[in-house]
Amino acid sequence: MSKDERASAGEGAVTRGTVASPGTATQVLGRYGEELAAQHLVGSGMSVLARNWRCRQGELDLVARDRDGTVVFVEVKTRAGTGFGQPAEAVGRVKARRLRVLACAWLLANPQPGGPELRFDVVSVVRRPGEQPKLTHLRGAF
Questions:
Q1: Is it the case that residue 2 has pLDDT exceeding 60?
Q2: Residue 29: which of 126, 110, 102 has the closest Cα?
Q3: Which of 15, 64, 79, 115 is the most exposed place for a label (fewest CB within 10 A)?
Q4: 72 near 82, Cβ under 8 Å?
Q5: Residues 89, 41 contacting (CB under 8 angstroms)
Q6: What does the pLDDT average to over 75-101?
Q7: Which residues pair with 77 in a beta bridge?
Q8: Of 121, 107, 126, 96, which is closest to residue 46 (Cα–Cα)?
Q9: CA dihedral in degrees (20, 22, 26, 32; nearest 10)?
Q10: Helix, strand, coil shares of the chain as percentages rounded to 5?
């Protein structure tokens, strides 16, 4: 199976009689954080419009709609600890610029009626072994 086939197959999907691997420990941790973030967003009244949306320029972790109609582009950062700082600190100027480009691509592919307000949030998840995960939601992070 080629790299592209594995990427498009998704976790646990069967392609040509082969089960795709669940991924590295980092990928599994990242998927865990994205799932936790999606649950948090829904619990706070948002609806998830897209998960892991990909295009030529990259990937958006989550796209959601807030109660007031605002379209929210959510970057999820998950870590097993804070030895290298808080997860949200990994979203710097360059990453923010890339997320804006991706948001434009998503909006072109998924036109929204009425030209809604847009917002960029970051959800940080820290999951230390043996502890409950700590989730921090930074609204309007950049």
A1: no
A2: 126
A3: 115
A4: no
A5: no
A6: 94
A7: 124
A8: 121
A9: 130
A10: 35, 30, 35
Strand partners, 55: 58
Domains and CATH numbers, the chain: 23-138 (3.40.1350.10)
Distances (CA, A) of 114 to 69, 109, 118: 10, 15, 12
Q: Which residues contact 52 (CB under 8 A, 6 or more apart)?
A: 34, 59, 60, 61
Main-chain phi, psi angles of 72, to 5 degrees? -115, 125
What are the pLDDT digits (tens) for 111-127?
Answer: 998 889 999 999 999 99
Task: Specify the pLDDT at position 21.
Answer: 63
- Report the pLDDT averaged over residues 55-84: 96
Count the helices and strands in the chain (H runs, E runs).
3, 7
Answer whether 49's CB lies under 8 Å from 55's CB. no
Cα–Cα distances (Å) from 78 to 17, 37, 63, in that order, read 32, 10, 17
Q: What angle do CA 72, 44, 103 make, to 5 degrees?
A: 10
Which tokens is 137 given?
A: 């939601």
